[in-house]
Amino acid sequence: MNACASGKPAQGSRLARSASVGREIARVLGIPEVCVRVRDLMKTDIGACAPDDDLMTVLLLMRERECGWAPVVNGRGVVCGVITDRDVAMAMLNHPSRGASRLSARDAMTTEVIGCTEEDGLQAVLDLMSAHHVRRLPVLDARRHLRGVISVDDLVRAPQARGIPTPAALVEALRLIISRPRVSDV
User: What is the pLDDT of residues 29-63, one digit of tens each?
Assistant: First the structure.
């Protein structure tokens, strides 16, 4: 098996020997091997909207943040939903007489919040994204307050380290994420 297929350097390669030497030096010096977690890759400077925000406000937030997704946070600071640009488009199609300024985030958001914690491992997060066909997860604390967001993009861009999903795992996850049935298929 080559390095690309396994996601690891080929045995005997210079990279494999270098990684092995690095681990041995860390072990001798008593430096623990670090496993990358959500907290290491998540973004914390994110925008959120409220359930009563009109969809025009939500769209402006998405444009400002250059992201087609936003968490919906209630008055107690709890994430009560998520909304995507597709959710906004579908709400406007389903209510053509109302328009973006007369529909709220509550009218369009997904209320089943699939999230993770800062301490979660990255493979578990990737598995969660795959199972629910989502590319982003809100990072929540124990009280379901927003701590940040992690996306499949963050995982793809992460340097290879212990705890980072292999390239093969990332490709498979992306395949599963985009395999969501279409509305016409249901």
Answer: 665 555 889 999 999 999 999 999 999 999 999 99
- Residue 30 is assigned to a structural domain of this protein: no
What lies within 8 Å, CB to CB, of 82 at 6+ separation is 69, 70, 71, 72, 109, 110, 113, 136, 138
Global confidence as pTM:
0.75
User: H or E segment at 83?
Assistant: strand 79-84
Please give the residue range of the domain that contains residue 143: 35-181
Flag whether 21 is in a domain. Answer: no
Q: Give the total number of structural domains in the chain.
A: 1
The pLDDT of 137-150, averaged and rounded, is: 97
Q: Is 29 a member of any domain?
A: no
| Structure tokens given for 70 | 């936003």
Q: What is the mean pLDDT of residues 78-82?
A: 97
With respect to residue 159, please indicate whether it lies within any of the assigned structural domains: yes
**Residue 4 exposed, middle or buried by CB count within 10 Å (0-12, 13-18, 19+):** exposed
- pLDDT for the residue numbered 148: 97
Q: What is the CATH number of the domain that holds 134?
A: 3.10.580.10
Residue 22 has pLDDT above 70, yes or no: no
Cα pseudo-dihedral 26, 29, 33, 36, rounded to 10: -90
User: What is the residue type of 116?
Assistant: C
3 state DSSP class of 136: strand
